[in-house]
Structure formats: C-alpha cells, structure tokens
C-alpha cells in the first residue's frame, strides 16, 4: 500500500488482508480455482482509501 502511495497505509492494511483472506476462504469453500474478482475487489477497496482529486 505504501508503494501505491495510499495515505495511512498501515491503517488500511488490515482491511486489505481481511479481504484477501475472505476471498481465499470463499474460493476454498466453493471449489473455485481462479482468483476472478480479486483485483476488482482490491481496486474498489483502495478507491475508498485514496484521496479524491
């Protein structure tokens, strides 16, 4: 997050980790072998964390 210039990266890191763990758990539960939607989910989460121009 720091390399993406997200302000307060340390504050947002737990939410990103929780999102990734949740998506991984969902893939395990459903038997899905792809990571479809992971990039979109992270992008939407970061969109809320980044300052608006």
TrEMBL record:
The protein, known as: TetR/AcrR family transcriptional regulator
Lineage: Bacteria, Bacillati, Actinomycetota, Actinomycetes, Streptosporangiales
């Amino acid at each position: 997050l720091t390399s993406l210039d997200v302000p307060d990266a340390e504050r947002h890191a737990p939410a990103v980790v929780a999102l990734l763990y949740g998506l991984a758990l969902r893939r395990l539960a459903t038997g899905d072998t792809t990571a479809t939607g992971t990039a979109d989910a992270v992008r939407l989460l970061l969109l809320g964390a980044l300052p608006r121009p």
